[in-house]
SLC13 family permease (Croceimicrobium hydrocarbonivorans), 590 residues
Amino acid sequence: MLSPEYHSIASLIIIGLLVLVLITDRFKTSLVFLFGGAALMISGAISAPDFLEGLSNPSIIKIFLLIIITAGINESFDLIGGLNRIFKGVKTPQGFIVRMGSSVAILSAFMNNTPVVSVMIPFVHQWGKSNRISPSKLLIPLSFAAIMGGVITLIGTSTNLLLNGLIQDAGLQPLSFFDFTLPGIGITVLGILAMAILAPKLLGDKEDLVSEIKDNRREYLIELRLIENSQYTGQSVEAVGLRNLEGFFLTQIIRENREIAPVPPSEILRQDDVLLFAGDTGQINNLVNRFPGLELAKTNEFQLIENTSYVEAIVAQNSQMDRRNAKEMGFRQRYDAAIIGIHRRGEKLSGKIGSIDLHVGDVLLMVAGPRFIERSSNTGDLIILEEHHKIAEKSNNSKWAFGIGTALSILLSSFGVLSFLEALLLILALQVATKMVNLDLINRVLSLDLLIILMVSLALGDSLISSGGAQILTDHLFSGANHWDHFTLITIVFITTWLLTSFITNVAAVSIMFPIAYSLAMSSGISYEALFLSTAFGASCSFITPFAYQTNLMVMELGKYRFRDFFRIGSIISLIYVAVFLFYIKVFYL
């Protein structure tokens, strides 16, 4: 173990390596953070007890409470049904972007914005197609509106809450709920207006991925099995009539973990055989109806009821499904759906569907239960090609009870009667009481990956400050600070955070920049609120690259966008964002 005098150097080296690995984007973010946290403990830069304190950190608890509360609201209220009324009569892309941006920004100010964007994507696509406007003109504005809405309040993004936790851990007065509101509203209003003017011109008419998938015939890998006591048991493939099928081809048989491929016409079928077909989804019902001794393999374990439907969805960018199979992730329980077909462009698939590792961009054909839409939108893992059914809303009494209780909780928190954490716990208790939230939902939306990232982020900030590494960085980066005015220093902190968040996660950007902002505040006499707000707003300025924020990645593939599309419109939005924020700082803090 390194001696204490080397702890600051160890912290800086570990953080430098972490940033480099994150930029390469070759490894899962949570894995990189986990190794970073382990390295900090091994080097002695932070102790194991201090690292584990993150589990009880109020900011992390608040973030997860907000995730659960957002999921409960999303599953219980028909948000899109309400938005539908807002968009009635809108026929131009400019008008749509203004109304969509305003609605999404308001929701994102108080909710986790990933499910908001996930739910909105099918609606945006449908509106664009019905009004003969390319969805590629609308999807980047959707993502940007969600990001801008997140900076209106303290709870609008997990980055703000993480920063507030770091401030509290440093023994300083935390930022208040509405410290973000004035600059956040200014940024959002001007940003949405700019997008309404610029997006239809700068974002060309492209055939988006959803249209391409819908308009083209897709060859799926479909898995069927012999039902119990099937009349086909003991008959050959040719005798049953499984050769020369219209729209389908029998590619292989899986029997007791043994693959038979190619399948000879004389192959005798046995009980529990799994038959894999490649073919067009439009012929699935014909195939099943024609051969009553066969059934879709997954429907045996998935009870087909009145509200069950077939659904097609795309595996989203940054999805937790990437490189994992349905069996290991517990797909049926997690999403209330069973995969019965997989389509991967330009690639022939083989093997049991439940054992095939899914890839970003795969199109899944699923038998979906009544809760699929709500569950999938909460995770952002899937992008549904069409809306299939509305959300089953709670009774009006439950909604009124929840609404009144939530308003009262926020009011009591605003006047200091309850802490914000206590208010969130009360809101969650109301959701449990009105059956908006249950253990199943909590298990589905809580993310171990996010917990690891947040815990290590807190540890990074703590180790940099306690070891003196933050002061070393500050001394080198701001060696001429004595000759710079406060506005220049705040601008440099903002721009540095902005550049970091454009290439690594915004949580990582905050954990790296907070110690620097803290040391600068202690040594220069600048208002620490101004420096910390510049860190928060810099970390949320995620417009110039697609990988700066998860919602950008969600729309990138769908809109067939390139890096230059984000940079072209994102650079203009970023300039507006920077100008509004720095004007606010100049007027109110300097």
Summary: The radius of gyration is 26 Å.
